[in-house]
Design brief:
With 370 residues, the chain is of the alpha/beta class. Helix content is 36%, strand content 16%. It is built from 12 helices and 17 strands. It has helices at residues 15-22, 25-28, 36-49, 60-70, 85-92, 138-148, 199-208, 230-261, 289-292, 296-305, 334-340, 354-366, and strands spanning 5-6, 53-57, 76-79, 97-100, 123-127, 151-155, 163-164, 167-168, 175-179, 192-196, 213-215, 218-219, 267-269, 276-277, 283-287, 308-309, 343-346. Strands 2-10-9-6-5-3-4 form a 7-stranded mixed sheet, sandwiched between helices. It is globular and about 70 Å long. Bound molecules: ligand T4K.
């Protein structure tokens, strides 16, 4: 049987290192509810991510859901449909209406030229996504938000450690959320975080992730349980020691993809963004079937026959899933529709062998018929 190559593979610290990190938990028996490792991890992340404040969560999705709740938003939120379903669900589950803006053809982030025409009296916020770790046009978004007095929340789930012009991605807007899921560049098994500027947001988040509890006798918010536990924090502390090396290895994989797949008619790969320190989180390719000869779906199927599990991140558009069917028109965001129907994210993880990258690319090139 041919070996399986999956789209992602979790980065793990050496086993002994993790065991050493969790050993003290057997002495204290303090396993969750903002323990010692949780505090240590928060401090380390504030420094690594170069952000003023951070609040940790059990996963990225709940960090976004509770952030929207903490900001007490109402009405409509402008966002994009070319993302993981979490972004749209978080808006809807807060009783807010997502208004879908189209994306740029070159980096798949929100098209800032189309935001203003979507703003109405009901708009309370913009929720752009640094999709694949590509940085949105944060300056233009800030100008629009200031003009119309809107909040800006970034879904930075993919953008751990990314900087632009030396500025950390988690410092833009009112707040940003990160995912530390097992499939991400940096993981805490499951996990997530919100980074923000206003201490009051932190107080609200602290409460909401712990059932809205203010004190033993006061519960003044309708919260949930979204706390990160000590085992997750320990994983984060360990993985943070290795993150630079992991990103460096991912860069080598991405460089190899570029060497193999550059300048092929019908196959579009995203150029590195100017002045961006990337984390190399995903490697999307967009296949134009008229120039390449076969479709994205055919390549996806052919690769699976070879045990290569590329993924269609992000297809369908979030607003076309069954639960939203009929409520949103995919023709409103033609670029997002075009990309979503043609994109394939190729396997990318730190320990992916370069020979395997060559193999994947050779398969893809061999299907070119046009
Ligand atoms: N916003 C955005 C823009 C996001 O992309 C996400 C999550 C969120 C918000 C929400 O953050 P979280 O609440 O998840 O923290 C995966 C991830 O579950 C999800 O975190 C991620 N985005 C999304 C893009 O991808 P699946 O269902 O496609 O993953 P799955 O289970 O098919 O795994 C993919 C591959 O990863 C596997 O084939 C092998 C590898 N893998 C997977 C797991 C679970 C590992 O190596 N280890 C593992 O433990 O959703």
């Amino acid at each position: 049987m041919k070996k399986q190559i999956m789209v992602a593979r979790s980065s793990m610290p050496p086993f002994e290192e993790y065991v050493k990190e969790i050993q003290s938990l057997w002495d204290t028996a303090w396993l969750t509810n903002m323990g010692r490792l949780h505090k240590e991890f928060e401090e380390k992340l504030v420094s690594f991510l170069k952000v003023p404040y951070i609040s940790l969560f059990c996963n990225g999705h709940l960090s976004l859901e509770l952030l929207l709740q903490a900001l007490k938003l109402e009405g409509e939120v402008i966002t994009t449909p070319f993302t993981f379903i979490s972004t749209t669900h978080a808006i809807v589950r807060n009783g807010l209406t997502p208004i879908f803006c189209d994306i740029n053809k070159d980096n798949y982030t929100i098209n800032v030229d189309q935001i203003e025409k979507l703003i109405t009296k009901k708009t309370s916020a913009i929720l752009p996504v640094h999709v694949y770790g590509h940085v949105c046009d944060t300056k233009a978004i800030e100008e629009i938000a200031n003009k119309y007095n809107l909040k800006v929340i970034y879904d930075a789930a993919h953008a751990f450690g990314v900087t632009i012009d030396g500025e950390a991605v988690g410092t833009f807007g009112d707040a940003s959320i990160f995912s530390f899921h097992a499939t991400k560049v940096f993981n805490t098994i499951e996990g997530g975080a919100v980074t923000f500027h206003d201490e009051n947001i932190g107080k609200e988040l602290y409460k909401l992730k712990n059932f809205g509890i203010q004190s033993e006798t006061v519960v003044d918010g309708v919260g949930v349980n979204a706390k990160m536990n000590e085992f997750q924090a320990a994983m984060g502390i360990c993985n943070l020691r290795h993150i630079d090396g992991e990103v460096e290895k991912r860069k080598k994989v991405v460089d190899r993809y570029f060497e193999n797949l550059e300048n092929i008619d019908g196959l579009c790969i995203t150029k590195e963004q100017k002045n961006v320190k990337s984390n190399y989180s995903y490697f999307p390719i967009v296949i134009d079937e008229t120039k390449f000869g076969i479709t994205r779906d055919e390549i996806y199927d052919e690769l699976r026959k070879e045990n290569i599990y590329a993924r269609k991140y992000f297809y369908p558009l979030t607003n076309q899933f069954q639960c939203y069917k009929g409520k949103f028109d995919k023709e409103q965001t033609p670029i997002a529709k075009y990309i979503s129907e043609r994109v394939l994210t190729l396997p990318l993880y730190a320990n992916l062998e370069l020979d395997d990258v060559d193999l994947i690319c050779n398969f893809i090139k061999s299907y070119k018929t046009a």
